[in-house]
Amino acid sequence: MYGVSEAQQQGAPVLRRSTFTICCSIQPQYPGGSFQLTFSSSNSAHNYTQPAVNHSAHFLFPAAEPAHQGSYSCVYDLYVFNHTFSSESRLLSITVLDPRPLIIKAVVLPLALLLVNVALYFYCKASRGRMPCRQEKTELDQYNLGAPAAEEEEEEAQGAE
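The chain above was modelled as a monomer; its predicted structure follows.
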């Protein structure tokens, strides 16, 4: 945890209604202490406090909502030898995203493409019988270039003689 200016923000997108955890930790110097997670947004501010366990604390948010969107920072406080030591982290900016547009892109669009392909398949299958370029299987005898007729003419010519 290092104190830095607000201009050096880090951002993290979180899907709405998903669980997220903010972990605060510090390099060990003395045992104990506590972490305070400070939250601020355009219309609210909150502080959450937990004791440091193994020089860290985990702040769990079970369901992300738009109200969780804002800036978070961890403040570590330790009281040693009649002195209070404090360290503040840089800001973490949380953005809560609505998953509905992602669902539309991931599910509805491929489903629509599938339905269009199925519709085109059945349209083409139904229209094959009406296409003028489709030919039925024909026998060669219908288009025999006159070979049987020539034999008949020969027989007639021999019978007439």
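Residues 1-9 have pLDDT under 50 and may be disordered.
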